[in-house]
Design goal:
The complex is a heterodimer. Chain A is of the alpha/beta class. In chain A, the strands form two sheets. In chain A, strands 4, 5, 6, 7, 8 and 10 form a six-stranded mixed beta sheet that branches. In chain A, strands 2-1-3-9 form a four-stranded mixed beta sheet. In chain A, helix 2 packs across helix 15, helix 10 packs across helix 12 and helix 12 packs across helix 19. Chain A starts with a helix and ends with a helix. About 6% of the residues of chain A have low confidence. By secondary structure, chain B is mainly α. Chain B has a single domain, classed as MetI-like (MetI-like fold, Orthogonal Bundle), CATH 1.10.3720. Chain B has 14 helices and two strands. Chain B has a two-stranded antiparallel sheet. Chain B is globular, with a radius of gyration of 24 Å. The mean pLDDT of chain B is 89. The interface between A and B is large, with 46 and 36 residues.
């Protein structure tokens, strides 16, 4: 009898013990992630969360980790994780909420999210950190001012400094006797000429949406002026005003004329790039980050010599002009303030000093870091872009730059329905305006 | 055995751990989420008490209305498709294939075992239009019809979603209803046959009433599953183009985690819970009335 009671008691103890272990292990994750931010020495690795579409930043950092920053990499090894760009904002908010942001991370689709993260102490102040490390001279002042205009402070690293415009197939233009358009009407006429010849005039990704809304933004900057969207942000104008709807209508008209070709609603980023560099489309609106694809001989069937760059054309009678290039820092990367410590600070100095040359050498990429080691063999198109950058006095942003996350999402998700005719220009602008609140 | 189950202490020991774990991983988050309804903000920015403001927004938010309509439309179409085709398959197994049905059963059941994302990728390729035509577009081209951008329009995207989800799950409902049909006593069927009923008459007056309980279970199962659809749509269209294929769950996910409005997301979740409860109660009531009549 006694032995049975003993067994009974030990069974109870075992069950209670097991339960405690289960509870402890359930709760353990929360404790760990909460505690990681509190450490004074920062992170002991250089973990990077990147949108999967961008392989250059991880690539360049990997090159640095093997060469110029090998010592720093021994102290804090680089590791890369990726997430699709469309899921990035969710991932960042979840990780930030759990205190689990990695050391470096892509800063979100909307600058608004980066500002929120900065306010809650998840973003390093680079002005202060780079000054303290005495490497701030390695960042181009133009890049810093663009970042400050967008993010309200020096909150992200300019791994890219891009200009945007329309890339065109020069061979196709010559073959069909089309001159480089300088006005919107010329652009539409050129598109019509290609469509008549059975060539898709524009390649664009409706799956991503933003390559289409960029056209709306640029049209607004040309027709209303460089402050067009600042006025919307300040509440002085509404996207539903006729002069704003006109821009969306102009882009919708490109869609209804089928200038974007078949399947624009579902084409993803890679496919849209391939359509252009395999010679199936005459024009392609994109940022200068596309140079790495253009310079990739294996992917580029039309040859980099057959690609030209034109700024977004003028809108007749508009207040803006084509010298005002759209410029940005891409989808930038920032550093988690909580992970900043000795090892990561070392990395940061090394990046500031070496990134500019490494990116230019490896990917033909113009970044916001100075090029400290001369790079030979810069492609002609890359040089052209570099010249365009230095010739630009006034830069404009993009359509959603000053929008909140919700309006950004609504705008980009509804770009495809706009050009396929599922929604009208008024409805499109109305939906985005509603979300601006 | 009776002695063991009669002892309260042993019941507590047997049920306790499971109940505790269940409470921790299910009930606590459920009530936690309910608590969010009264707040605005998120884990990054902090929370602010707003009372019932989230509910007021819910009533006037046109996006919620659109998502709700889509959810109901989806649930209706998919439930009808799943259960009807499932029932058809079950009848086929029991009355036509009989003992030789196991191979067909396994093959038709197979898609439900595949990961949703893999199935969605498969359907994306089947219905693709660019850079190359998928199988479906190539097929309709043969008949002289132009290629369709299936995912470029809400209407056609819905058709693809419906085909995919019905194809994926009809085998499961086939097996579920098959289990109900084999329970019908052979002698009842035999006597009906002797009385001269066959085919449609037999189905209408014997098979359908006798398999009604399992049919009702299948409908409740299906409608609750389809009202909460998330993964298949997220993987196939991500709610697009625009928001034309966004059910309440995707809208809830976006408000909570993309726009950082946990409270509003929780309100949408509560709305969905209430709808699921209401639908279940209605079906239960309706089916009980039928059974007493029968």
């Amino acid at each position: 009898m006694r032995s049975s009671r003993m067994t009974h008691r030990s069974a109870v103890t075992a069950v209670v013990g097991l339960t405690m272990v289960t509870i402890a292990s359930c709760g353990g994750g929360g404790d760990d992630s909460g505690g990681s931010g509190a450490g004074g020495d920062g992170a002991s690795d250089l973990s990077l969360l990147m949108n999967v579409e961008n392989n250059e930043i991880p690539g360049t950092l990997t090159t640095l980790s093997e060469n110029a920053c090998a010592d720093q990499n021994d102290a804090a090894p680089l590791s890369v994780e990726t997430v699709p760009q469309t899921n990035l904002d969710q991932q960042l908010q979840l990780l930030a909420g759990q205190g689990g942001l990695p050391t470096l991370y892509a800063a979100g689709n909307a600058p608004d999210l980066t500002k929120t993260l900065a306010e809650s102490g998840h973003v390093l102040d680079f002005q202060e950190a780079l000054t303290e490390l005495d490497v701030i001279d390695n960042v181009e002042p133009a890049a810093i001012s663009t970042i400050e205009a967008l993010y309200g402070g020096f909150n992200v690293l300019p791994f890219e400094y891009n200009i945007e415009g329309i890339w065109y197939n020069t061979a196709m233009f010559d073959e069909h006797g089309v001159t480089v358009p300088e006005t919107w009407d010329d652009l539409v006429a050129a598109a019509q000429a290609f469509a008549d010849a059975g060539i898709t005039p524009f390649s664009a990704s409706g799956d991503q949406g933003w390559p289409i809304t960029r056209l709306i933004g640029n049209y607004l900057f040309r027709s209303i002026g460089p402050d067009a969207l600042q006025r919307v942000a300040d509440g002085e104008a509404s996207l539903t005003d006729p002069e704003y709807v006109e821009a969306a209508q102009a882009v919708a008209d490109l869609g209804s004329a089928e200038f974007f070709g078949q399947g624009v609603g579902s084409i993803d980023m890679d496919t849209s790039t391939n359509e252009f560099i395999s010679g199936n489309a005459a024009m392609y609106y994109m940022g200068s980050w596309a140079l790495s694809d253009f310079n990739d001989d294996e992917r580029n069937d039309i040859g980099v010599d057959n690609i030209g760059f034109m700024p977004f054309p003028d809108v007749e009678g508009g207040a803006g002009d084509r010298s005002q290039l759209a410029a940005n820092v891409g989808l930038p990367v920032t550093m988690n303030a909580e992970a900043y410590g000795d090892a990561t600070a070392d990395w940061l100095s090394c990046i500031a000093e070496n990134y500019g040359s490494a990116a230019l050498e490896e990917y033909n990429r113009v970044s916001g870091f100075t090029v400290n080691n001369p790079v030979d063999d810069v492609g002609q198109l890359t040089q052209e872009v570099q010249d365009q950058v230095s010739a630009t006095d006034e830069a404009v942003l993009w359509f959603e730059a000053l929008f909140n996350t919700e309006a950004t999402n609504t705008s980009q998700r509804n770009a495809a329905p706009l050009v396929t005719g599922s929604i009208s220009a008024e409805e499109f602008m109305g939906m985005v305006q509603d979300d601006l609140g | 055995m009776e002695q063991v189950l009669g002892d309260k202490k042993s019941i507590a020991i047997l049920v306790g751990p499971a109940l505790l774990v269940y409470s921790l991983v299910m009930l606590v988050p459920v009530f936690w989420s309910l608590g969010y309804i009264m707040f605005e903000g998120n884990a990054v920015t902090g929370f602010r008490y707003v009372g019932l403001a989230n509910f007021a927004d819910l009533l006037s938010d046109s996006k919620v209305h659109d998502a709700l309509l889509f959810t109901l439309r989806y649930a209706l179409v998919i439930t009808i498709g799943q259960v009807l085709l499932g029932y058809g398959l079950a009848l086929l197994y029991v009355f036509v294939l009989r003992r030789y049905s196991s191979l067909i059963r396994t093959l038709v059941f197979f898609p439900i075992v595949l990961p949703t994302v893999a199935v969605a990728l498969l359907f994306q390729q089947l219905f693709s239009v660019a850079p190359q035509n998928g199988v479906v577009n190539s097929l309709i081209n043969v008949f002289g019809v132009d290629s369709v951008d299936w995912f470029g329009d809400g209407g056609t995207a819905f058709i693809v979603i419906a085909i995919m989800d019905i194809w994926r799950s009809m085998g499961f409902y086939g097996v579920l209803l098959f289990a109900g049909l084999v329970e019908i006593p052979e002698d009842v069927l035999e006597s009906a046959r002797i009385d001269g009923s066959g085919g449609w008459k037999m189905l209408r007056h014997i098979v359908l009433p006798l398999s009604l309980p399992v049919l009702v279970s299948a409908i409740i199962f299906s409608i609750n599953g389809t009202l909460k659809v998330f993964d298949s749509i997220l993987a196939l269209t991500n709610g697009g183009p625009g928001t034309s294929t966004s059910p309440l769950t995707i809208y809830m996910f976006q408000t909570s985690f993309t726009y950082g409005e946990y409270g509003y997301g929780s309100s949408v979740a509560l709305l969905l819970t209430i709808i699921c409860l209401m639908v279940t109660v209605v079906i239960f009531r309706a089916s009980r009335r039928d059974l007493t009549k029968g």
